[in-house]
Specification:
The complex is a heterodimer of chains A (163) and B (193). Chain A has 7 helices and no strands. By secondary structure, chain A is mostly helical. Among the domains of chain A are: 55 residues; 32 residues. In chain B, 79% of the residues lie in helices and 0% in strands. Classes of the chains: A mainly alpha (163), B mainly alpha (193). Chains A and B meet through α1, α3 and α4 of A and α2, α3, α6, α7 and α8 of B.
Chain lengths: 163, 193
Amino acid sequence: MTGQHLTDEQFTDLLSGDYTADAHRHMLACAQCQGEFERVQASIEDFVTLSLEWAERRASTSISAPSAFLCGWHSASSWAAAAAVLAAAILFGVHQGRLLSPETISVASSQPAESASEVADDNRLLMAIDKEIRWQTESPISIDDLTTSAGRPHAQPSRGLTN
Amino acid sequence: MHAAHASTVLRFAGKERAATELDDIDQLVHRYGARLLRFVAFSIGDQDLAQSIVQDCFMKAYNARDNFRGDCSVQTWLNRIALNMILDHQRTQKFRFWRLFRKTALDISEIASTLPSRASTPEKDLLRQERAAQVAKALESLSFNQRTIFLMHFQEGMNIPEISSAIDMSVNTVKTHLHRAVKAVREKIGEMK
């Protein structure tokens, strides 16, 4: 005890229920220590109770049943394996078909021409999008802003230079 | 001799019971989910991250159930796994991101205000909420070790040797952290009264 009151260690020990007879005797005799002990103990008890009530509500809605996840994971992994095998088989088949088919060369030679037209189409589309975006970025300015800036004398922007 | 034999049987029986308990993952979540969520949520102060950790914790516990030796309670074992996962998260960039934004940070006043009334009067209810909020607020100012040890001791009911074993820290160091945590909580409660 420091002076007449409980030390921090004794206070903690009393809260933990692991205290000396001396400390307990003092707490019963000292109204100040008893008052503080009861207040801290009640606060911790309320925190423990209310936090559990909160966690119970939260857990019931937020923690999903892991067994479903486990089943899902097992079925997902088997589906993934089956899909991988199927994809490999298709790729292998396509690859074999390309090697064997005489049309492979003509298909390959027609690719650049198609790509060139596609590139031209893409460029046209991109330009249209670019134009559209440029128009849209200008649009946030209200018509009032446009009219006031139009009426403003052209010499105004150079005001900073003259000062 | 007889007593020793009896304790072996009890320990063996306890282990057997725990092993069965760990085999049923849904039962495990049902029984320990809320307490584990509470422990993790108040350790890290983030609800969503806590849920994610708890979910992963149950998966990890289920996959490692053969390693459970039965020398501590299932709750303590789960807390230990959760604590390791929290420490892993703390080391990652992801955790720093969460800490930075704390969009789902715990708000004890909001939590308390949504709770159903169990006290006899609204005044008592309000008092309980205020006291709980004071402790939650005080916990925010503690170091990670102080907060974790405080929660393990007062929330989870673990004694000093159990905490020492769970977090691999000496008994004296655990006691020191606990004393400092209680002192800080007392001071905060005193400031707020």
